[in-house]
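Session log. Operator J.P. requested a structure for one protein chain; no other inputs attached. Running the standard single-chain path with token output.
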Amino acid sequence: MKEYMPYGEEQPYIKAGPFKIRLPFIHYRFEIADYVQGLLMCAVCLGAIPLLQDNLGMPFEVALAIVTLNGFFYLWHTLLGDPVVPGWITPAIPLLTAYCLAFPEGQARMQALVAFEITLGLFSILLGVTGIAGKIINLIPTAIKSGIILGAGISAIYMIFVEGGKFETMPWTTTICLIIAFYLLFSNGFKRLSTKNKFFETIANLGILPAVLIAIIVGPLVGECVWPTIDWGFSHPDFATLWTDWVPWGALGWPSLTMFIKAIPTVLAIYIVLFGDVVQSKALVHDADVTRPDEKVDYNPNRAHLIFGIRNTIMGIIGPDITMCGPLWAAMQVVVCERYKKGKKSMGSLFGGAACFRMGTFTGYWMAPIVSLVTPILSVAMSLTMIVQGFVSVRIGIQQATSFKDLGIAGVVAGVLVVEGSAWGLAVGILCCLLCYGKDFFKGDTTFGHLWSPEVEAMTAEETTLDDAEEEKAPSITA
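Structure written below.
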């Protein structure tokens, strides 16, 4: 096999300003295992289609076009030097959904979504260009951060189980698959089993995919959906209708300045959730990097902000998406990193694993057999994704709090956020912190020791160490 880099150095790249361009076969080897897994896991990404249909009234083919466009922009992360598997801003989907549903269905709702996504994109680009992406989050009191992330997790679960939610469409299938997913992802017993048995280790590396595949069988058996009718050939995303009726430069029209202003509180609330994904990205990449002395992996939060900022801005213009363009698909990043840790024989470069996985999902969107196979159970795929994300968000949100008073404020913020939306949640959080902490508004509860063990405290303190990456000193390396 061709050696792509000297031992202990970065993968070769083409220097392009803040970006490091890397191409498959030229700068890293093609990882077939990750590509194949991506082909199957595109089922989870297609779970965005019911969200777009239910909340925005989109036809299936138009929603498929938006998922496909988003999939194309997923490829930009590794192409431009970000060693991650990107995904949705999953914990924040309920926040944006609630914001959009406050507007009448049709033109007003779509324009509100466009205004939000463009504003979020431009805000992220600004933070990346100025280099303050790793510092701004420290200005937000821990109680407010805790409340917003906690509220996002509760909202994710609530939107599935609320009357008329996804759970009611396929309750038995969703319940069975949830049991399987939680056992595979969070059970200590299964974790021990997977370390002793190669078969169970493989199952563990597939994330929630086994539960999604089981849904295809269980759903028809319990009478909650039909057996899939397999179509052959290629899928047919309807870009023509999307770019005629559903974009601001088409029949939809551009949002007013007022709509952009109204979007700001939701943008700020969702950015707090989004920043948690950036922190998690850095931690996962660092954890993988230290186990492989043969490759130096550079993760730069400012570069990441630029990439997903550009993605959100462009998608806001050519394909507004309620799932948003996030920096990380945490579950699959873990899977890729775990295989990477096994050595160069298992995965040549972290860039190869992440890039090939997303190449696989992008290919899957175009393959009619895969799309038609999972279409009957897309609501189950969405339910699994949202509930698992809710579980993780609630855990992370509570860990943000540093005292019982912080937890009390966080609970109030979360409750208001779930019922009244992001703007009210932020306002109530600011008021609570002013009343409780006064001049110590930014410091928080200075009279109480940290709630958690030193291990958890060190983990949550990761946010305060998200420093900018060192400036590049070495000249660029070309293929």
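Operator note: The two ends are 15 Å apart (CA to CA).
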